[in-house]
C-alpha cells in the first residue's frame, strides 16, 4: 500500500513538473509585440466596400506595417494561361511605397471562404492536371514578385491540414511538398505554412515551415454542432502545444497568422444583427482577445477582420473597433 502511495506521488510530481515545463515561455510586454493584418480584396467586395479605399485607409490611417496578401488563383488566372495581376500589382505597389513588410500567400487554398479559390476551368480538370496548373501559377507569381524587397515571405496554401473546413478536397501531402520545394528553388525567402490553433496538431505543418503560423480563435459558430461555441482554453493551451510541437519540428519562427478580430456568425456577419455579431466579437471581446493572445507567449500577430472594422466605421457609423486598432498599432 505504501509503495502504491509513493509511486502515485512520484507520478503526480512528474506530471506536475512536466506541465510546468510545457506551459513555460516568455510573455512579451505590450510594446514588444508586432501586429499586422490580412487584407482580402474579395472580402471587401463582399461587404460592398470600395476595396481600394479600404486598403488605403488601412495603410494610411491604421498605418499597418505588416501585411498578408492572398494571390487568389481564380482572380489571377480566370482564363487558362491568361494571367492578370493588375489588382495585386496595385496592392503590392502601394504597400511597398510605404515600407510595409508583405507576406504573399499562394496556392489553391487561401484565406477566406470557400478556402479553395480555383478558377472555374480548373474545377473541370482532373487532379493531376489541376496540380500542374497550380504549380505553374505559383512559379509565375513568385518569379514576378521575387525582386520586390518588401516581400518578406511566401505562404504556401492556407491551413492545408484542416481539410474538413472549407469547400476543398483532402490535402495531398506529396503535392504540398512539391509546392514548397518549387518555392524554395525559386527564391530564398522563408516559406510559411499555417495550421488551425484549435483543431489541428501542428506537427505536419510546422516540420515543413521556415515560419509556422497558427490561427487563434475563441468564439465561433460550429456548423457541425449547429451552435455557437466558446473554446474552453487558456493561453497555456498554446504554450503547451508549441512546446510539444517543438519536440518534432523546429521552424525558425512561430507567429499567429490569423488572430480573431471579426465575428463568426451562423450567416455572413453583414447579414446578421448587431446582437448576433456581438456573440463572437465586439470591442470588449477584441480587447480580451488581444490580451489572451499576448499571454500565449507569441510575439507577432496578424489580425483577422480589417475589412469588418472598416465596414463598421463607414457603413454603420461605428468607428470604435477601427480606432482601437489604430491605438494598438500606434503603441507598438
Write the layout of secondary structure elements.
Layout (H helix, E strand, L loop, with lengths): L1 H21 L11 E5 L2 H6 L4 H12 L3 E5 L2 H4 L9 H12 L3 E6 L13 H4 L3 H19 L5 E6 L16 H14 L4 E5 L7 H4 L4 E6 L2 E4 L4 E4 L4 H11 L7 E8 L13 H5 L4 H13 L4 E5 L1 H10 L4 H12 L1
Parallel strand pairs: 1-2, 1-10, 2-3, 3-4, 4-5, 5-6, 6-9, 9-10
Antiparallel strand pairs: 7-8
Helix pairs in contact: 7-8
Would you mind describing this structure in some detail?
The structure is a single chain. The chain has 332 residues and is of the alpha/beta class. The chain has one domain: Glycosidases (TIM Barrel, Alpha-Beta Barrel), CATH 3.20.20.80. The protein has 14 helices and ten strands. The strands form two sheets. It has an eight-stranded parallel barrel with strand order 1-2-3-4-5-6-9-10, surrounded by four helices. α7 (127-145) packs parallel to α8 (173-186). The chain is globular, with a radius of gyration of 21 Å. It starts with a helix and ends with a helix.
How many angstroms does the end-to-end distance come to? 58 Å
Mean pLDDT, nearest integer? Answer: 93
- In total, the number of domains comes to 1
Order of helices and strands: HEHHEHHEHHEHEHEEEHEHHEHH
Tell me the strand order in the biggest sheet. 1-2-3-4-5-6-9-10
Instruction: Look up the CATH topology.
Output: TIM Barrel
How many strands appear in the DSSP assignment? 10
Question: What characterizes the major β-sheet?
Answer: 8 strands, parallel, barrel
Computed Rg: 21 Å
Instruction: Look at the structure and name the CATH superfamily.
Output: Glycosidases
Q: Can you tell me the CATH class?
A: Alpha Beta
Outline the low-pLDDT stretches. 7-17
How does the overall form come out from the CA principal axes? globular
Q: What is the second-level CATH architecture?
A: Alpha-Beta Barrel
Share of helix among residues? 40-55%
Structural class: alpha/beta
DSSP helical segment count: 14
Strand content: 15-25%
Amino acid at each position: 500500500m505504501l509503495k502504491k502511495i509513493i509511486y502515485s506521488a512520484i507520478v503526480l510530481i512528474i506530471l506536475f513538473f512536466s506541465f510546468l515545463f510545457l506551459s513555460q515561455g516568455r510573455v512579451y510586454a505590450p510594446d514588444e509585440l508586432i501586429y499586422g493584418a490580412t487584407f482580402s480584396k474579395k472580402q471587401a467586395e463582399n461587404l460592398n466596400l470600395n476595396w481600394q479605399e479600404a486598403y488605403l485607409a488601412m495603410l494610411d490611417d491604421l498605418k499597418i506595417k505588416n501585411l498578408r496578401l492572398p494571390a487568389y488563383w481564380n482572380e489571377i488566372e480566370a482564363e487558362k494561361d491568361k494571367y492578370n495581376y493588375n489588382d495585386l500589382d496595385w496592392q503590392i505597389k502601394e504597400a511597398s511605397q510605404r515600407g510595409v513588410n508583405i507576406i504573399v500567400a499562394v496556392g489553391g487554398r487561401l484565406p477566406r471562404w470557400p478556402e479553395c479559390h480555383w478558377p472555374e476551368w480548373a474545377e473541370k480538370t482532373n487532379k493531376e492536371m489541376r496540380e500542374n496548373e497550380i504549380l505553374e501559377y505559383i512559379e509565375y507569381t513568385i518569379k514576378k514578385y521575387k525582386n520586390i524587397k518588401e516581400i518578406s515571405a511566401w505562404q504556401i496554401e492556407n491551413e492545408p491540414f484542416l481539410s474538413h473546413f472549407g469547400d476543398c478536397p483532402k490535402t495531398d501531402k506529396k503535392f504540398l511538398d512539391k509546392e514548397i520545394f518549387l518555392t524554395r528553388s525559386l527564391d530564398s525567402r522563408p516559406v510559411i505554412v499555417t495550421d488551425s490553433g484549435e483543431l489541428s496538431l501542428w506537427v505536419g505543418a510546422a516540420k515543413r515551415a521556415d515560419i509556422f503560423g497558427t490561427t487563434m480563435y475563441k468564439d465561433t459558430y460550429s456548423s457541425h454542432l449547429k451552435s455557437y461555441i466558446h473554446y474552453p482554453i487558456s493561453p497555456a493551451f498554446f504554450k503547451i502545444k508549441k512546446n510539444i510541437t517543438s519536440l518534432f519540428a523546429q521552424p525558425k519562427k512561430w507567429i499567429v497568422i490569423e488572430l480573431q478580430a471579426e465575428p463568426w456568425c451562423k450567416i455572413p456577419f453583414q447579414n446578421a444583427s448587431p446582437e448576433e455579431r456581438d456573440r463572437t466579437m465586439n470591442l470588449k471581446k477584441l480587447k480580451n482577445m488581444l490580451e489572451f493572445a499576448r499571454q500565449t507567449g507569441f510575439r507577432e500577430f496578424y489580425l483577422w477582420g480589417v475589412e469588418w472594422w472598416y465596414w463598421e466605421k463607414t457603413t454603420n457609423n461605428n468607428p470604435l473597433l477601427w480606432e482601437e486598432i489604430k491605438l494598438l498599432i500606434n503603441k507598438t
